[in-house]
């Protein structure tokens, strides 16, 4: 399995970064690259470091790390929305999207460093990436803190990384979609239409992105029709702030600002988004929690010292997610009337969210559950040819095959069960 996983990463390597999928996702994706680096550190430290360093070449002057860095060697219409839609080009010539994805990058950088601290020090890896990572978190803190409690907001469903989540249905309902004939989807050229978002939802995604673009990607001036505090996004920001504190110690900087911000975010996350044993997203425009229980609400298990971890674990083990009984971890409440085992983020299990929850279980000392989830992930990764995601009831493969983060995270769990970094 290790050899096959490494082969997938080799096949998807472009020389400076790794594409998620040669067919469906032919460019560099932001949080994909972070997960990929976590696996690459077991294959090649230099490639893992380069993966993250190359992504930072696409960082904007305001600090944001865009969710796509477009490759000039790929036809401009191979993916939609492509560079001609986003119209975002940096001074170094890099073309990007204008939205972001969950901030797991600092954690990935720390884990990459820990895999070989001597080589990291020799190459000055942490010194090179730390300023960009601090600027990235600064952008989120300064430009995306919309609500009163200090949590960071996403302004497009794609920014959650869980694009088609049922949690976005009610906020999206107020968005008038782009006209059906104004764009051409490319995702359904490579994946079953029944597994992908509907044309109606895709039209809404396009309209939100176009409005942001037409307002110069200005977070303060754009009339956002979608603004949500997402528990997964904020949980990964908290974990990455802890990682930045560890990096700061190695570099001789003061770690306390990172630890303080992580503590403030954790307090806000629990007080604002935790209800009935579960974290839920908050629709800032409606001013209310969204009553959809998704895997995003379980990702705070990764937060060191989470005060409600026991209650959250009980929810994961309960009828809504049945951790240990289903394959990996379902992306949506199994008891919901609109649960769909095959459609993108509306039920299927994903390898990256399973990896995150595994990390949380190990930190909590839940060895039996962690070992079972690890074994399931490794078995499914190999059996499905490293599928993008799987049916949580049958384990059948969906989406792309030879998917990079599936291979990378399987490689990581095959290598070690110990979570590196701050506990």
Automatic annotation (TrEMBL):
Domain spans labelled Mannosylglycerate hydrolase MGH1-like glycoside hydrolase: 25-406
The GO terms this record gives for MF are: Glc3Man9GlcNAc2 oligosaccharide glucosidase activity
This protein's record includes keyword Iron: no
Q: Sorted alphabetically, which keywords does the UniProt record give?
A: Glycosidase, Hydrolase
Q: Pfam families this protein is in? A: MGH1-like_GH
Query: What is the annotated signal peptide range for this record?
Result: none
> What InterPro entries does the record point to?
6-hairpin_glycosidase_sf, 6hp_glycosidase-like_sf, Glycoside_hydrolase_63, MGH1-like_GH
Single biological process term from Gene Ontology: protein N-linked glycosylation
Does the record bear Secreted in its keywords?
no
Family to which this protein belongs: Belongs to the glycosyl hydrolase 63 family.
**What protein name is recorded for this chain?**
Mannosylglycerate hydrolase MGH1-like glycoside hydrolase domain-containing protein
- Species this protein is from: Kribbella shirazensis
């Amino acid at each position: 399995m290790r050899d096959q996983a490494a082969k997938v990463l080799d096949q998807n390597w472009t020389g400076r970064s790794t594409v998620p999928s040669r067919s469906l996702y032919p460019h560099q994706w932001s949080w994909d690259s972070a997960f990929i680096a976590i696996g690459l550190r077991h294959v090649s430290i230099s490639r893992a470091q380069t993966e993250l360093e190359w992504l930072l070449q696409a960082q904007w002057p305001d600090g944001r790390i865009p969710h796509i860095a477009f490759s000039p060697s790929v036809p401009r219409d191979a993916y939609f929305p492509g560079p001609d839609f986003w119209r975002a080009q940096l001074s170094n010539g890099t073309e990007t999207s204008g939205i972001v994805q969950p901030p797991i990058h600092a954690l990935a950088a720390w884990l990459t460093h820990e895999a070989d601290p001597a080589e990291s020090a020799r190459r000055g890896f942490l010194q090179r990436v730390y300023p960009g990572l601090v600027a990235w978190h600064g952008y989120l803190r300064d430009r995306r803190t919309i609500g009163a409690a200090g949590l960071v907001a996403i302004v497009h469903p794609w920014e959650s990384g869980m694009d088609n989540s049922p949690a976005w249905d009610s906020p999206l309902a107020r968005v008038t979609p782009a006209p059906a004939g104004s764009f051409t989807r490319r995702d359904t050229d490579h994946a079953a239409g029944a597994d992908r978002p509907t044309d109606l939802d895709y039209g809404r995604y396009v309209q939100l992105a176009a409005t942001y673009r037409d307002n110069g990607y200005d977070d303060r001036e754009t009339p956002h029709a979608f603004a949500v505090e997402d528990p997964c996004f904020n949980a990964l920001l908290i974990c990455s702030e802890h990682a930045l504190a560890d990096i700061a110690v190695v570099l001789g900087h003061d770690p306390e600002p990172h630890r303080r911000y992580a503590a403030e975010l954790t307090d806000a996350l629990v007080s604002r988004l935790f209800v009935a044993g579960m974290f839920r997203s908050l629709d800032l425009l409606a001013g209310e929690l969204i009553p959809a229980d998704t895997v995003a609400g379980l990702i705070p298990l990764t937060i060191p010292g989470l005060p409600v971890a026991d209650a959250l674990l009980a929810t994961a083990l309960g009828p809504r997610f049945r951790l240990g009984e289903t394959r990996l971890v379902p992306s949506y409440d199994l008891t919901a009337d609109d649960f769909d085992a095959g459609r993108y983020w509306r039920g299927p299990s994903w390898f990256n969210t399973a990896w995150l929850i595994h990390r949380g279980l190990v930190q909590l000392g839940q060895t039996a559950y962690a070992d079972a989830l690890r074994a399931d992930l490794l078995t499914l990764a190999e059996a499905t040819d490293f599928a993008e995601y799987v049916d949580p009831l049958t384990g059948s493969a969906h989406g792309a095959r030879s998917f990079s983060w599936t291979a990378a995270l399987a490689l990581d769990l095959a290598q070690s069960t110990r979570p590196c970094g701050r506990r």
